Amino acid sequence: MTLLHRETTVENMSIVSPEFEAPKKVTIEDVARHAGVSVATVSKAVNRKYGVAKATIERVNEAVRELGYVPSMAASSMRNSASNVVGILLAGFDPFATEVIKGISAEAVNKDYELMAYSAAIADDKTVGWERDSLIRLGGTILDAAIVLTPSVALPEVAMPIVAIDPRMGPGGPPSIACDSLAGARAATQHLIDLGHTRIAHIRGRTDLTSALIREQGYCQAIAEAGLPYDPSMIVDGGYRRNWGADATRKLLALPEPPTAIFAANDSSALGVMDAAAEMGLSIPRDLSVVGFDDVPECMYATPALTTVAQPLMEMGAQAYRTILSMLGHEDVENSLKVPAELVVRGSTAPFVAAA
Amino acid sequence: MTLLHRETTVENMSIVSPEFEAPKKVTIEDVARHAGVSVATVSKAVNRKYGVAKATIERVNEAVRELGYVPSMAASSMRNSASNVVGILLAGFDPFATEVIKGISAEAVNKDYELMAYSAAIADDKTVGWERDSLIRLGGTILDAAIVLTPSVALPEVAMPIVAIDPRMGPGGPPSIACDSLAGARAATQHLIDLGHTRIAHIRGRTDLTSALIREQGYCQAIAEAGLPYDPSMIVDGGYRRNWGADATRKLLALPEPPTAIFAANDSSALGVMDAAAEMGLSIPRDLSVVGFDDVPECMYATPALTTVAQPLMEMGAQAYRTILSMLGHEDVENSLKVPAELVVRGSTAPFVAAA
DNA sequence: AAAACAGTTGAAAACGTTTGAAACTGGCGC
DNA sequence: GCGCCAGTTTCAAACGTTTTCAACTGTTTT
Fold this sequence. Notes:
The structure is a homodimer. With about 350 residues, the first copy, chain A, is α/β, with parallel strands linked by helices. A 6-stranded parallel sheet of chain A has the order 3-2-4-5-6-13, sandwiched between helices. In chain A, strands 8-7-9-10-11-14 form a 6-stranded mixed sheet, sandwiched between helices. The longest helix of chain A is centred in the middle third of the chain and has 16 residues. The N and C termini of chain A lie far apart (about 60 Å). The interface between A and B is large, with 99 and 98 residues. Strand 12 of chain A pairs antiparallel with strand 1 of chain B, so a sheet runs across the interface. Chain A binds a DNA duplex (30 and 30 nucleotides) through helix 2 and helix 4.
């Protein structure tokens, strides 16, 4: 069972392969000729339509197998103007997106539509509005519908159903799924207040997303209702990004009166807070309490585990898929669906103790 | 600047939207009619072909803008049997894939081909061979070429260029890019040996991937060459997955003579080792040294930072894209390209000290 | 004035598929 | 023999493009 004596090594793999030449593409016509029937019959046979004799189907299938025929998606989707593919558009492969996708996939199994995750594969940030371009380009041709994750721009009117998850605010726009960010943010802030903290900072999210604005709003409300003073220097940008969160933290902790607790608008930036704290020799939660938002799996792996506001990400994905299906079936759908958010207390928050 | 007095709340967004109805699709014919020219002229105008008068181009562009015309990808790619899209097929959105994609995107900017990342969006593991199905389905119709990440099955012969990153071993198959796993694994194991460890365990990777087998081979070689005894119980499966890695670790540490160092076949399972160690109250690297493989960004965020073997993931992605371009240009390409792997020593490894 | 020409434009074929309607089978009852 | 039927199969049109080639301009050359 051991590999100690394995003969094959990686060394002998470096051979130059001949120039690539495409195997000739086999069309429905080839199959028809090979099976001795018309193309129409082949089409009906492979699409399991009624009105084809058992024996014929058998013969066609054999020809298909023998020739390795695969229907051209382009051709068939052109003919029916339907591709039976639902696209998932995402900006990046972050944990948030991954969780949502898991939820969508779970819901989509055994349904009539194939699923495709699509990213413009943009490395840098200079290409804004790629969702709009992609949507237009793919819409109605290779996609029958799309679920867009955290779109940064107003989505265009396209000839297919669209659902947005955590969308940019604005009038009109597609149906959307979002969690109750206001209640969640208030609960997070209140949790820190209950622990006795009075200097509580907030690290903002992506300011182009409604969710981020609402979370900031929730933070402000909780602070105000507790009668704590409002201090603009306690609010800094974090862009939902880990390293931005770390930068923001360094700025906050350099203040003359640094905060003793931080509520970050999402988990990534909260993890950035922990990075920066570790780097500065601060212990969490002894020296600094941190709360995040989203509850991505990473929260559990952090040391200490991150207190956060849990969004039901998988459920949101599933809900988005159900909504898409309704729209494809020409049913009425909720314009905006809100799912609950729930505070999950873990190890990154502790009662305030007077500093050294 | 504060949001304290923001009027808009999330509450007023829940309205039922009317049943979805598709905006009529605008075709090239609509544009032609609107601009008072023929469809042929429109096509030439939008594709910036020679032989169209300046004024006509202007008129067509105006019509295009006015009507919001977008060429149907399906139709045009059917006509020229080329879509100018290179697909990236990946199993999941793990850090490994993300890094490689970054490399591909960086290389692909300003090239003639658009990039698309596809995942079958499968949540569970029961669907093996999805790469094969996707490849066949997409090949030659909406994809001109594909880069496949860690394919688990033999890739089919399809009518387009394919490059595999970290592929399954076997004769034939597409050109592939992989790092020198043998040297990397030997270096990792040797590092632990140099630190004085004698009971060194190995957590295997996905046994369907060549890379995992070669890393195991490298481990075995280093152990043998150091004259250390070969102990089968020191090799357990980890499947390249974090929680499997944790499970494997629990098993290893429950042995009568547990290892004092672990070389995991990739970073995810190495992080799993750290999870399990933390859970059992062991301190890394004092009680247990850990080495991973890949050098995904997470390594830096772990506490302590993970010692690992760095693969040039982005460079591998870039290389894959360059290879694809060569193949599309009908040039000869290397059948198998190997890039170097390099040990990066961080905080998760320390000299062996006799246990308590 | 005819011919050649460069610059534009348009008609039509082709890409591979699906589908509604038409045409072909025997078999049956009249 | 005729009409009718259900069960099959094929014809041909359509989907939205791109591209070849012919046709049409107006201008210049012979």
